[in-house]
Amino acid sequence: MLTIRENLLETIKGGNPDRFVNQYEFMELIMECPLGQMVGPGQTLKNEWGITFSWPEGQLGGFPVHDEEHKVLKDITKWKEQVTIPPIVTDDAAWAAAEEHAKNVDRNERFVTTFVAPGVFEMTHHLMSMEDALMGLYEEPEYMHELIDALTERELAYAKEMIRRIKPDAIFHHDDWGSQKASFVSPEMFEEFFLPAYKKIYGFYKENGVELIVHHNDAYSANLVPFMIEMGIDIWQGVMTTNDTPELIKKYGGKISFMGDIDSGVVDFPAWTPEIVHQEVERACTNCGKLYFIPNLTQGLNFSSFPGVYEEASKAIDEMSKKLF
To answer: GO MF annotations for this entry (predicted)?
Structure first.
């Protein structure tokens, strides 16, 4: 029987896996890195960038507050005056828990994986609102390029410190690029503004010992897959069924792998049942096949919004491994 790590590599390299990779099992997520403040359920907080986040009780996640009072960047032409880029945390004590966690992982079994969020695109609209960020790409492209360059350099500085301390095998990087049915920007605009940034970021990780780039994007982005390949993504996590995952595997398998195809919105809701979960897992595993595919809820971490769903999906995936392998 292959180790978890070996089975993952056989799956994404078109080899001979002996079972389905079961959701996030191959990533030992090091969540203790001092990445920045993140809002929790029922909280409102202002983070180190000055962005105010709110997560109302009963909702599935938090989002920045973008009324006139709370918006950080009100005029993209004045971003240098209005955006204060926070320094990277270099204090030993702040990194101690993450270093200790990484040190105790069996790297022959799992990939030591650091978590990075938000991504470059998300940072633009967190600072200035989605509407302003998208309009800025059209109306003030020069200033948007400057802001994106600054955000890229800041992440590279964080990456340097994190790699020095953790020496990760994999990066789990978040940046949502679309809705369920369309990308937020056209492929041409994505290529101009965001591809160069990610080629720098993911190139830096790969040049410094990172073996796997796993990118979370629970959205429609089938039209951006060629750019994902070019920027160095190994696994697109969060791929929704609206992308036609089996067709993507057929077209791009061997260049990139796809993790998801079990839409969280379909299985992860208050009235969920084991039957619904097992039905969706069976559909995904049967349609997508054994190679270049990892069955997974499209949720961006190794849990579900409602108790029991993630665990039930893992159980169903194990059952499909017994049936299909």
So the answer is: uroporphyrinogen decarboxylase activity
